[in-house]
Design goal:
By secondary structure, the chain is an alpha+beta fold. It has 4 helices and 4 strands; from the N terminus they run H-E-E-E-E-H-H-H. The chain has one domain: Ubiquitin Conjugating Enzyme, CATH 3.10.110. The relative contact order is 0.12.
Length: about 200
C-alpha cells in the first residue's frame, strides 16, 4: 500500500474513533446546560416563595403583595399606598410584578394597572427606575452600576424604592416626558391630575 493510501486510511480510522467521543461530549454538555437551567428555575421559584412567605408573615407598611394565580409564582399583584405628604397620598394603586425564570440574576418588570401620572412611569404604566434596570453599566451614563439591579434585591426593596420614587421623582431620564414637564412647569395642574388618579383608586 502506498503512503498516500495509508495516510488516508489512518485519517478515516481516526475520524471513526473520534466521532462517538465528540457526540458523547455534546450530549454531556447539553445535559449539563439542562441541569443548570433546572437548578436556576428551582432556585428562583424557591426564593420567590420564601419572599412571599416572609411578606405574608411580616407585612410592610405602604404596600401589600400576593400572587395573581396560586399556580404561578412568577406573577405577583401588589397594591401600593400613596406615600404621606405626597400628591399620591390616599391612593391605593394596583400593579403587577413579572419575574424572569433566572431571578434574582435578572430583575422583574413592574407595571401599574391603576391609572397613574408620574415622570418615571410611562403611559402604559411601566415603571422606569434604576433598581429594575439590567445589571451592569449604563451605556448612557445616567446611572451607576451600583444603582441598578443587584441579586441581593428583594420584592420588599423594590417596592420600597417605588414608594420613594412616588415622593421623589427622578428627572434625569423620565419615562413620561409630558408628566415631567407638567410637574416642573405647572405643579398645581400636576397635583390636580394626580388627585384624579387617587380618586379613581378609591372608587374601585
Amino acid at each position: 500500500m502506498n503512503v498516500r493510501l495509508k495516510l488516508a486510511e489512518l485519517q478515516k480510522s481516526r475520524k471513526r474513533r473520534l466521532l462517538p467521543i465528540d457526540e458523547s461530549s455534546e450530549m454531556v454538555e447539553q445535559q449539563h446546560r439542562t441541569e443548570l437551567h433546572k437548578m436556576s428555575f428551582d432556585q428562583s421559584r424557591l426564593l420567590l416563595q420564601k419572599q412571599l412567605n416572609d411578606l405574608t408573615k411580616n407585612p410592610v407598611d405602604g404596600f401589600s403583595a400576593g400572587l395573581v394565580d396560586e399556580s404561578n409564582i412568577y406573577k405577583w399583584q401588589v397594591f401600593i399606598m400613596g406615600p404621606p405628604s405626597s400628591p399620591y397620598e390616599g391612593g391605593n394603586f394596583r400593579a403587577e410584578l413579572i419575574f424572569p425564570k433566572d431571578y434574582p440574576l435578572c430583575p422583574p418588570t413592574m407595571r401599574f394597572i391603576s391609572r397613574i401620572l408620574h415622570p418615571n412611569i410611562d403611559r402604559e404604566g411601566n415603571v422606569c427606575i434604576s433598581i429594575l434596570h439590567e445589571p451592569g453599566d449604563d451605556r448612557f451614563g445616567y446611572e451607576k452600576a451600583s444603582e441598578r439591579w443587584l441579586p441581593v434585591h428583594t420584592v420588599e426593596t423594590i417596592l420600597i424604592s417605588v414608594i420613594s420614587m412616588l415622593s421623589d421623582p427622578n428627572f434625569d431620564s423620565p419615562a413620561n416626558v409630558d408628566a415631567a414637564k407638567l410637574y416642573r412647569e405647572n405643579p398645581t395642574e400636576y397635583k390636580r391630575q394626580v388627585a384624579r388618579c387617587v380618586r379613581e383608586t378609591e372608587e374601585l
